[in-house]
């Protein structure tokens, strides 16, 4: 008897398969990864076959049969990967499997079917009928005229859609003509291709420098299985890392292998994508969430069928159905967007490593500012120089200490430098990592602070929308003229965000156009790319924005980069604050001086002594990472330990506290040696939920993860966490 072990795609944590089903002949070919509709209790659910067996522990009469086999699902390799993600990140098999299924089966639900197009052509009889005295309806005649009127070449076809739109010829008319043998109709499946926007894409193929060539050689050797498989490509911005990715991908294709190229958030990396699309054309498929559902499905299909062999996309592309994988590239491997924030909270970089390992593929992570983890764990390839041979721009740290708080966000040195840019008719980039007009509004009379009613955070003033916004939950309210507590109209706005800065700059730099790039200004299709393109095409100008301005573009006429409030990221209560600050300052510095006119960088800060800022100013990743690793070792932070964060939320503070203590007790006995358990610690209220956090610092990752998973499952099964939500984050960011 053929048995399928099926994991139902349900969201309930307590409900855990796989469950056995008997496979009847009528279902046809069913294998690991097939998607089935199965009876489940009184319901029917969609499930994924995770294994096949000859027999079941259950007696045959207790085994149900699947109702039907649905569309083809995932490959066995991807099923294994999905199950691994579910386990590794303390989620469920269902959640892990959803990640690897075709877009139409996964989270999106059924989604649209394939786009079918009806094409009409005139037959010989149809052509003859036009001239003869054949009786034709008005629409039928018009259709024949379109299809055969001007003696078009044989095989001339028009789509029914087009005939309907341009001539009002409906479907019925075409079908009548078909019945009469005057027209043939055929249906074709159209694959939708996403449009790739070209931003500074270079189609030329430079000959590789010696450093680039030896990096490619190492990766190719890894692909051929003769050397270490995992590499870190450390190269300053503009050192030609992307050319190395392209060459390594080409080598994979030559070997008949496929490649996955992970890039940070899609909107932020149009250049990287267009370079791959330009170089490899139809062999590239893009997979990301901004595609229309149909496009995504079709791109997925092109990969699954092997028509496309390279997948470029953000973190979820790590699950792309690329067969016979030879290479996985992680571009800008330091980027925080590789961590998924929903369940499962996977880290695409770790999944990439696992998948590459599983497939025997080479892994190539690249960055100018690599993570300490990668610095320590991967074999290093260096591109120490910029590809154009230019020096990195000098960085000047502008000490803000002792300055007057009234002097505004722009230091006089910065104003001077901007004036020089204007005189030189050149371009500048100014980074301030904060959206909105001002981050804090309060009443001068009574001190009332405008806070989110759902979260314990200040509302941010967005002047152009006349709204106060919560950047955590999205709550927004109309700006008010007066204080809701005392009625005073003396409201004060403190601090500046990008919106205010853009206005300030517009006043300060005179005729130079100012472009603002943040998630507010970029909202809407193509917004981000459009803003970058306008900046690119302008003769001179200032690009102001959040960290978005520091990523993935390459404009030769930028001669000045400025970081404002560089220590804002340093003040985050997070052990990665140093790493982030270093990356942000270095990345922005890398955007300057890419052209003939050279460039420079200004960093305004209250913490000029901070290691992250000093080393970034010296372009010295090596020193920074050495020091950072030492600090991490002393504090037992990753990569010298593994962190697992457990968050509990409830509507009442008491309940949140009680359940988190309950979880702590459940964990205490079963943790592997060398695990430190911290908390419960309160976190600020979010979306109306009180929150508590437990943190584990573990030496033995797998054991700690499995202890947490076991404890959580027990508690959920025993319904001990009722009235609360729990989320587990392995390797939190
Ligand atoms: P990175 O990805 O490290 O920022 P890129 O690959 O984007 O660097 O390269 C920066 C610029 O240098 C690009 O315009 C690229 O076309 C060019 N470039 C890269 N490698 C070479 C080379 N070997 N010779 C000439 N130009 C190169
Ligand atoms: Zn007041
Ligand atoms: Zn809120």
Please provide a written account of the structure.
It is globular, with a radius of gyration of 30 Å. The chain starts with a strand and ends with a strand. A hairpin with a 4-residue loop joins strand 19 (460-462) and strand 20. With 733 residues, the protein is of the alpha/beta class. Helices cover 31% and strands 23% of the residues. Adenosine-5'-diphosphate (ADP) binds next to helix 8. The site of adenosine-5'-diphosphate (ADP) has 16 residues, from helix 8.
Shape: globular
What ligands are attached or bound here?
adenosine-5'-diphosphate, zinc ion
Helix content: 25-40%
Number of extended strands: 30
| Major sheet attributes | 7 strands, parallel
Oligomer: single chain
First-last Cα distance: 48 Å
Tell me, rounded to a whole number, the average pLDDT.
Answer: 88
**Are there runs of 5+ residues with pLDDT below 50, and where?**
106-114
The order of strands across the largest sheet is: 11-12-10-13-14-9-15
- Strand content range: 15-25%
Radius of gyration: 30 Å
Q: How many helix segments? A: 20
Helix and strand content put the structural class at: alpha/beta
